[in-house]
């Protein structure tokens, strides 16, 4: 019996990988961000389609699979983010990840509270998760459209940094929901604990990897492969160590490992980068399809017109407002500010963390907040679906409409 089940699971995993590869192929051929094809593939094989994948398919292992996958994805994005890029990044990028993120957080929470009549804790949880745009959706967009380097930098910087901070903030808020005795001061302590542990762990693991690659003699033929594997293993190990102490501290650890290694002089750096990109594409495809497959339209329909109103406020009002406030000062012309305003798709971090928290809210004894779980999951997935289909799917058209496409020379 177990052999039969295992064979079914292997066939399912193979099918997901196949769909993911096909999505990447179609994205490359038609120059459309791959996330659009990945979502369609996920819905096709999920409960709303063929029913091949359900919430029971991977069971409790899903959160672990998602966690490790997110660590790999974040590591790859942060590895490409050099200190020089951050140091010389436009001031607008720094304002967008601080002032803009705060505006998005509080504005989204207030919107969810008013339109969906959600409890404040659920509203703030949704607000925290939807701060994150993320490299998982931004990178595919920038791969198919060519924009000015400063525009690409602000989008990539926002995605990578907000992915980490949003995940940690969401975990801290969730902790306050399940431990009502937590004082306001404890809220700040939890955030600092997770971020601090992640940074320390990431620095330590990055130091070990750097030492092994630069101070240990390796056979010339084996050195490139060893470098690639060590770097990737470092990210997963850093994630596992930090996450075993504080939930979601692992994301900060993986990001710190990637950023640190990406700014050190490593042998075979280009090989490491290409290998990370290939692995990330595979992992991204698997996770995006799996999470999209768990999407149930009944949760979206339950939100009704109020859910669509939340989407409208978040995408058409809050996002442009945060971008325009962050990009004051003449660094960006109006057409680029409009483009950045309408390129804010959400990705893996909100989807995976929302799924995990919704399950916990529904399965605790007694259930913590079943109604809040439905609002959380429905709102987050509705905004992911709309922003990925519209903003990612039509990114080239949006860029062309605002005239920000750079001509290839």
- First and last CA, distance: 60 Å
Helix-strand pattern: HHHHHHHHHHHHHHHHHH
Question: Total strand count, please?
Answer: 0
State which percent range the strand residues make up: under 5%
Subcellular location: Cell membrane
Main location: membrane
GO biological process, one term: proton transmembrane transport
Membrane topology: Multi-pass membrane protein
How would you describe what is shown here?
It is a single chain. With 409 residues, this protein is mostly helical. It has one domain: Na+/H+ antiporter like fold (Up-down Bundle), CATH 1.20.1530. 78% of the residues lie in helices and 0% in strands. The protein has 18 helices and no strands. It has helices spanning 2-30, 34-45, 61-79, 83-87, 91-116, 120-129, 135-144, 149-178, 184-215, 223-245, 249-262, 269-293, 297-301, 304-326, 334-341, 348-363, 370-392, 395-401. Helix 1 (2-30) runs antiparallel to helix 2 (34-45). It is globular. The protein starts with a helix and ends in an 8-residue tail after the last helix. The chain crosses the membrane at residues 6-28, 35-55, 61-83, 95-116, 122-147, 188-213, 225-242, 279-297, 303-326, 338-359, 371-390. InterPro entries: Cation/H_exchanger_TM, Na+/solute_symporter_sf. Residues 19-385 form the Cation/H+ exchanger transmembrane domain.
